[in-house]
Amino acid sequence: MTDIHALVRQNILNLKPYSSARSEFDGDGQIWLDANENPYGNGLNRYPDPLQLEVKYPLADLLGISPANLFIGNGSDEAIDLIIRIFCQPGKDRVAILSPTYGMYKVSADINEAEVIDIPLNEDFDIDFENTRQIIAQTTPKLLFICSPNNPTGNELDPEKIELLADAYQGIVVIDQAYAEFSKRALSLHKFLESHDNVIFLRTFSKSWGLAGIRAGIAISSPAIIDLLNKVKPPYNVNTLSQEVILNAIENHKAIMRRKDKLVEHLGYLKEGLKKLGVVKRIYPSDSNFILVQFDNAKRVYDILAESGIVVRDRSAMVEGCLRITVGTPDENDILIQTLKEIS
Ligand SMILES: *Cc1c(COP(=O)(O)O)cnc(C)c1O
């Protein structure tokens, strides 16, 4: 057992959270005169449920966990920021990341004035266990962010090494699984939740669910940590429309996941197409919906694609010569390959 509260900032432990009108009344209300809302109904005149319980019950069912293990945020980016704010005292506490990785960990840490300990992944973009363990022991960060499948490299990290790190670590491990549904090797939530109360998993509706526009992300953790997230979040952080869309998506989960499986197939074809091209130097393995591709002249390839209206992500500052390419529709992927062929 981890003493979670010993890791939390004192002001957050002391915090008396904002108590919203909707969370103070517990009963069967008929006439709502408590929240200064407009009484004339249009379906959106009332504040949303601050704890999104109607969404959490079916979502917890789907994930095979309890609603008490669930937090829903305005994107998982909101959860990342909240986690840093709960555990890291500005100017004092540190956050470890395994790079190259998702840029928001550092941005949120910088905003919250938490020093970032940058631990490199090995050549295969997997965890360099001994080095990571040593740096963590020396720098004692409050939080360790592990992104798996990792962005921008695309690969799943070794689950055994993740588990060994989590076992040995005295702080909070955040395992960002934004792309878990695309991976055949993703770490199992349940096993980890049972054995680790210091782990926070992040999931999102933005990628496999196809709902980036509603801004909804999920944190999955021990009830003690979920309570802290709920204490610090803005009261109405997930709006009514987004909650309705999530409920609807959960009902259509099977169809949405079939569409996701199609994307994994398209990614396979995209990879085959890329392999045949002269400009492509290296294709990194992917357990996600994008591929990291190394080119002889990434800047030139990027510019030519951009002139054709094809926008990819230049990651050459993070991994030399690399562009990150998201899988599109089969037509979009074909046009990309055709354009790259002309460059070759
Ligand atoms: C896309 C992405 C997210 C998702 O962020 P949202 O705020 O939920 O849209 C989180 N983590 C990683 C690594 C990502 O690539």
Structure description:
This protein has helices spanning 4-7, 10-14, 21-24, 53-63, 76-87, 104-111, 129-139, 159-168, 189-195, 223-232, 240-251, 253-275, 298-307, 330-343; strands at 70-73, 94-99, 115-120, 143-147, 172-176, 199-204, 217-220, 280-283, 290-295, 313-314, 322-326. The protein has 344 residues and is of the alpha/beta class. A seven-stranded mixed β-sheet has the order 1-7-6-5-4-2-3, sandwiched between helices. The model has no long low-confidence stretch (mean pLDDT 96). Bound molecules: pyridoxal-5'-phosphate (PLP). The site of pyridoxal-5'-phosphate has 13 residues, from helix 5.
Series of H and E elements = HHHHEHEHEHEHEHEEHHHEEHEEH
Q: What's the rounded overall pLDDT mean? A: 96
Major sheet summary line: 7 strands, mixed
Shape: globular
| N-to-C CA distance | 57 Å
Oligomer: single chain
Please tell me how large the radius of gyration is. Answer: 22 Å
Tally of contiguous helical segments: 14
Across the major sheet, the strand order is: 1-7-6-5-4-2-3
State the helical fraction.
40-55%
Structural class: alpha/beta
SS elements, strand count: 11
The distinct bound ligands, ions and cofactors come out as:
pyridoxal-5'-phosphate
Strand-residue proportion: 15-25%
- Taking pLDDT < 50 over at least 5 consecutive residues as the criterion, the unreliable ranges are none
Features:
344 residues; alpha/beta; 7-stranded mixed sheet; 4-stranded antiparallel sheet; globular
